[in-house]
Amino acid sequence: MAAAVEGVIRVEEVAGRGRALVATQPLRAGEIVLRESPILVYSALPLIKPQQHQNSSYYCDYCFRTLSSASSVFSCPCCSALHFCSQRCLSVAQSSSHSPWVCQALCRLRDSLSLQPPERQVQAQFLVAAYNIALVSPAHFQILLSLQGRVFDCDAGDAQFLHSLICSVCPPTQLPGVSLELSAALLAKDKLNAFCLMEPLIQKNGQRSVRAYAIYPTASFFNHDCLPNACRFDYIDSASDANNTDMIIRMIHDVPQGREICLSYFPVNMNYSSRQKRLLEDYGFSCDCDRCKVEATWSDNEDDAGEDGEDEEVMEEDQDEEMDAEETSGAEHENGASDSDFPHAYFFLRYMCNEENCGGTLAPLPPSGSSTSNVLECNVCGNLKKDEVINQ
Q: Where does the SET domain start and stop, copy by copy (predicted)?
């Protein structure tokens, strides 16, 4: 499991914000400050798949790379429901994420979950994955339990139902220490700490679906800011990288030593009311960052305007839901606000991707030696853009 790159960030208590990741030295634009492997990854597809998905798998159920029509597919010999891109992925999964215990549990769950909504099916898969790491990797299970998330952060009804379901298909003798309180605590950890591994961007409509959810212990300490100074990249379909589910965090711009490193928990171009609503409902807090302090004084009429937009990538420390188009912040200036009323306009001009239906954030490529790269990469569509500011 990778951690902070050469100790350039560390976990500190920040007043009013809890545990946070702070720069231990001056950081440069494009610098990689974290590359981390997940301790847990599970599918975002429901166990009872839609009819059109019954006879196909779009990705490997271990490394989550896309399976093309020309791919050689290796199916689990026991359940035949999970598919893998190679014999290696199948073999590794059988000793870790798809152990015989998991295989048996998922087979039993399919019958029990046939009438349940997809969200509950995915939550059930998370609980199976979480209890599995308690069996195959107790150290990772303790890390999971140490992450933010308390019992009352999850829905009590869901926790009760899912816990009873898990116990019905997995005898308690197979899960020492299992309890309703532990199941509820695990669901809370998932809600506040799971990141989405996304399907590629469909340019024609901007929609992206979630391929899988993953929990990264160090990355879970990144706090939110509506104008972040770092952003996340992943290269899940990379054929050359054995650790293709790693998360990579790169700096958007320079920051001094001691500055907190923040990500945005959702696309930066969401408007004020949408951001506040999402943060309160999903994470239990309201944001008072510099940007929000400015935008809080703007007209409430921004909530009434509908904008054609697109679903965007969500950083998730929670379960991803496709966002409606009106959440994009073409509304930022719809109230007649000028650039002088919006002091952060420079961020949008320089660091927002201008590709149609994208809405991603740009960060420079990693610096080479002492030189900062003048090429910016979008963390959603992957397009590269020359940074004219550096060349001036």
A: 6-266
Alpha-carbon distance of 369 to 45, in angstroms, equals 43
Domain range summary for the chain, segments of one domain joined by +? 40-195
Gap between the Cα atoms of 4 and 265, Å rounded: 20
Q: Where are the alpha helices (DSSP H) in the chain?
A: 87-94, 100-112, 118-136, 138-146, 156-169, 180-193, 272-283, 290-295, 345-351, 388-391
pLDDT in tens, 101-137: 999 999 888 888 888 899 999 999 999 999 999 999 9
b/e per residue 354-374 (b: at least 16 CB within 10 A): ebebbbbbbbbbbeeeeebbe
Question: How would you label 17-33 residue by residue, b for 16+ Cβ within 10 Å and e otherwise?
Answer: eeebbbbbeebbbbbbb
Tell me the two tokens of residue 52: 């059109």
Tokens (6 digits) for 33: 């400050």
More confident residue, 103 or 330: 103
Query: Average pLDDT, stretch 177-200?
Result: 91
Half-sphere exposure of 3 (CA within 13 A, CB side): 7
Contact between 380 and 358 (Cβ < 8 Å) = yes
